[in-house]
Amino acid sequence: MALTPGSRLGPYEILAPLGAGGMGEVYRARDTKLHRDVVIKTLRRELASDPDRVRRFEYEAQSASALNHPNIITIHDIGRQDGNLYIAMEFVDGVTLREILANGEHLPNRRTLDLSTQIADGLARAHAAGIVHRDLKPENVMVSKDGFVKILDFGLAKLAPLPAEGGSALPTAVIQETHPGTVLGTVGYMSPEQASGRPLDYRSDQFSFGSVMYEMATGKRAFRRDSAAETLTAIIREEPEPIAPLNPKVPAPLRWILERCLAKEPDDRYASTRDLARDLRSLRDHLSETSLSAEAVAVPSRPRRRMLLPGVAAIALAALAVGFLLGKGRGGTAPQFQRLTFRRGTVLSARFAPDGQTVLYAAAWEGRPPEIFSARIGSPESRSMGLPRGDVLAVSPAGELAFSLGWRYVLGWEARGTLARVPIAGGAPREVLEEIQDADWSPDGSNLVVARQLGDRRVLEYPIGKRVYETAGWLSNVRMAPDGRRIAVVEHLRRGDSAGRLLILDAAGRSKPISGAYSSCGLRASWSLDGDLWSSRCTGTTQSSIDLYRLTPGGRERLVMRAPGGSRLEDISRDGRVLFARSSLRREIVGLAPADTRERSLSWLDWSFPTDLSMDGSFLLFDEQTAAVPDYLVYLRKTNGSDAVLLGRGSGTSLSPDGKWALVLGVSAPNRLMLLPTGPGEARPLVESSIQYQWANWFPDGRRVLAVGNEFGHGQRLWIQELGEKPRAISPEGVSFFWKALSPDGKRIAALGPDRKVAIYFVDPREPQPVAGLSPDDLPIQWTADGRALYVWRQSELPTRVYVVDVETGKRELWKQIDPPDPAGILTIGPILISFDGKSYVYSYRRDLDDLFLAQGLR
């Protein structure tokens, strides 16, 4: 029996009907006790009189109410009155996703990703609690006027066997009249296993979610035929229409995520919905770099989180073995581990020699430059091969080493060198190709596949000179399969950033993502002799563990082992032994305070990243990018070593001239700038815009902000934002800056132009001015106090020398040489911050201490 306005169910006064269907009714009501609007859902009386139905109704409602997630509708109450069994839940002032999609047009990529990320976050929370929705569709997704997503009917589809059309046992929030369109609308979001009557788990929701995403991205339903039976057949047997012809603007990473969600077999979808949500969030936050437009991708003004996540501290080998118990479960015997290196420093890479008993590796021991060593399995000693500074790339079947001669970091984690080859038995190296990032031999050793810098792009070539793939980011971990027809490579969409995705390319350059959208640590891959691709990548909400997976040529992937965080795959021998490294990563800060004569450590937790130094050098603004929390933490600390003060969350960029405010970027919301007080006061948001910010500085007047960022579909450029006003662009696209880019008078900006050269840009628009005396490797730090010169440094040098370069004459003078007292595990210095008087400073570095291990018995 329908309820009339003014009637009551418990403390709830019915205000108006919202919808009705075969299972019950939905009403808007008023909670007379708490004075808030709610939604009341009721079951038909004949269903509410079934004791078994009531028991399961109450159990499922209790489970759903315990989820407590911002993207899941909140259940307030459950009750019965006058034969009416009802649920009171949160009222959302908005519309359903079905209403948003009603015009049959696709949504903009930004909105598709924003809504999809929120839905996936809600699903991940429910799946972690063991609850499967089983009826995810646009009708069950509410979008508030503020853009927040709320998933309806969580767990309620389990209240009864699914009706013939596959709907939930309760009505949704909109009118659900009985007609063919409604039936098809529900059937069209079933998973293949649901459509064929097989058992379901959380991966069924992933398929339904993929169908919803497909509709947002294309404006069309993935599976819609003339009848319910034909629709079910299409879900089970057919693929949806390709996305690219329907909406060419959908970026490739989003298409790959969609294809994985819509895989027919559950095992081919995501092993964890949390990983799905993480991939979508990463893609949303990096959308500008994945745009199909030919936009300029500027050097990040600072490394983002995925570039900087630390590993865990060094642990005992016995504890490491415990992490590999999955291997024992599969093979019947526990895997065996043997440590191969014993010195203190960084292992860059390692490969087996053709004999299977020799390991060639590059390492920087005790702070010395990288060197290539040879180690014999079973012996604790390693010997230098006597080659110039370089990194091991690959070893051919005939025993020829390909290595990166003059290897150096050029930005963040991104490194380059000159490709050279030399017999491992001895001889002089022969240079082959400059500006390479990685390389591997073809199976017969006759050719090389290389990742290299080519103009402003990074390309993959096989053989050298024939372009197979290119990216605006950078490439690493190039490995060719034993069949010579497939290439594994890690693509990093942000310059210098360690976050990337693992791809398999065929001979035509067609790519298939293997590791989802992004992984920020431990991402490496290697082929076994039987053609399986083994890969390592970090997992977990704190990214504190590394999973090793094995992918068959048929596309089946399974977990081989789980290792402590900081581990990474290096190589696999012909007989299946695994070479891997275990790392302990930290980022540290050292500084000299005003009036001090000795440097002191200013590190706080395990990944301290300096972002600004007050004008007098007495206060340091820094981030803690520890893996223990899901967001950045912004701290302020006196450089005299007193305790750090937590200001809030985000990514700090600049202290106001009066020291009262910290300018902060949102990490999960890069289009938002915030002001955090350094003393008493409340946080203040700046006007939100469509710009995805990379960095920002205060103007000297304290009333304006200089920012670098890009709008969707456009390259980075410089923006000025008055407090409380919308930003305005002051440069062409392709321009970015770093650190303290503004001159003391607030009129000039030291920035990187579209040609990747440093130039002086002006706040009042005019032609940029080149800077004399700078090399391509010089990175500006800030202006001198008189505004006549720039402090610059080179990241690739160790020890690092900071110079003062006159912007008019190009005259260069050494300001300071930075040489950490304990250089072990340090290969690069930066960022560096200097007070205006040049008497105080801070600098930072990452310390990477590695050990090389051999694992036997992994299956």
Could you explain the architecture of this structure?
It is a single chain. By secondary structure, the protein is an alpha+beta fold. The protein folds into three domains: 8-285, Transferase(Phosphotransferase) domain 1 (Transferase(Phosphotransferase), domain 1, Orthogonal Bundle); 311-584, Neuraminidase (6 Propeller); 603-846, 6 Propeller (Neuraminidase), CATH 2.120.10. 15% of the residues lie in helices and 39% in strands. A seven-stranded antiparallel sheet has the order 15-16-17-18-19-20-21, with no helix packed on it. A six-stranded antiparallel sheet has the order 1-2-3-4-6-5. The protein is globular and about 90 Å long.
In brief:
A seven-stranded antiparallel sheet has the order 15-16-17-18-19-20-21, with no helix packed on it. It has a six-stranded antiparallel sheet with strand order 1-2-3-4-6-5. Strands 10, 30, 31, 32, 53 and 54 form a six-stranded antiparallel sheet that branches.
